[in-house]
Amino acid sequence: MPEAAALELDGVDIRYGSVTAVRELTLRVGRSEIVGLIGPNGAGKSTTLHAIMGLLPVHQGEIRLNGQPLRRRSAESIARAGIALVPEGRRIFGDFTVEENLRLGLAARRRAYMGDPLAPAFELFPILQEFRRRQAGVLSGGQQQQLAIGRALVSRPDILLLDEPSLGLAPLAVDGIFKAFTEIRELGTTILLIEQRAQRTVALANRTHVLVGGELRMTLGPGDAENTQKIIAAYLAT
Ligand SMILES: Nc1ncnc2c1ncn2[C@@H]1O[C@H](COP(=O)(O)OP(=O)(O)OP(=O)(O)O)[C@@H](O)[C@H]1O
Ligand SMILES: [Mg+2]
């Protein structure tokens, strides 16, 4: 028997009322892999992450964590099972301090650890430790994204879901968070990364799936990075 994928979607349909937003989506994320999910606006990327988190019901098919179906589990229980979401738009509280924002992530922790519970965020992003008593609203866009990722990491998830983390960031800040993804993978956390920066994602991820109109249309590997745009344009033209 091959090892169960860390996260697996098997023929998943997700609906809003009578409208099917994601259709027959099948994908695997192996342990300590980064898998990319790219596609145009409205493709169903955020919908997919919300269904994995138990925030939307799965109409058909199955989502499995370490081989175990997640069906009918509450969002809280899925978070406690070790999946954390960094939502689109960061959703940090600007009038809370950095430390207060990070502490919100502790609610999903499965057990206590020795030492500072915020260490997973501070080790990856030292600036958050330096600024721990500042109001989050005064941080730069890049620092706020570090805070959103740090808040997810303090629950020590096995799987991190990221929804367009580089959106609206300056080029240097984008470099910083892409470097962080590599470090997070090296620390053993599995990543499903939704991005608009297609070429960078293809270069970074073990595999990158292209979702269009709720359906998985093609899969690219790191070797395709140089030609990402050409490959996708040629495919969509056919
Ligand atoms: N709450 C909702 N109710 C009804 N339809 C929705 C809802 N949220 C999203 N949709 C629809 O589902 C489809 C997929 O939306 P989704 O937000 O998952 O796309 P996305 O790939 O994340 O796009 P973006 O790049 O703009 O974030 C779209 O057609 C969208 O209009
Ligand atoms: Mg989205």
What does this structure look like?
The protein has about 240 residues and is of the alpha/beta class. It folds into 2 domains: about 160 residues, 3-Layer(aba) Sandwich (Rossmann fold); about 70 residues, no CATH class. Helices cover about 35% and strands about 25% of the residues. The chain contains 9 helices and 10 strands. The strands form 2 sheets. The chain has a 6-stranded mixed beta sheet with strand order 6-7-8-3-9-10, sandwiched between helices. It has a 4-stranded antiparallel beta sheet with strand order 2-1-4-5, with helices on one face. Helix 3 packs parallel to helix 6. The longest helix has 16 residues. The termini are far apart. The mean pLDDT is about 95. Magnesium ion (MG) binds next to helix 1. Adenosine-5'-triphosphate binds next to helix 1.
List keywords for this structure.
single chain, 238 residues, alpha/beta, Rossmann fold, 2 domains, six-stranded mixed β-sheet, four-stranded antiparallel β-sheet, globular, binds adenosine-5'-triphosphate, binds magnesium ion
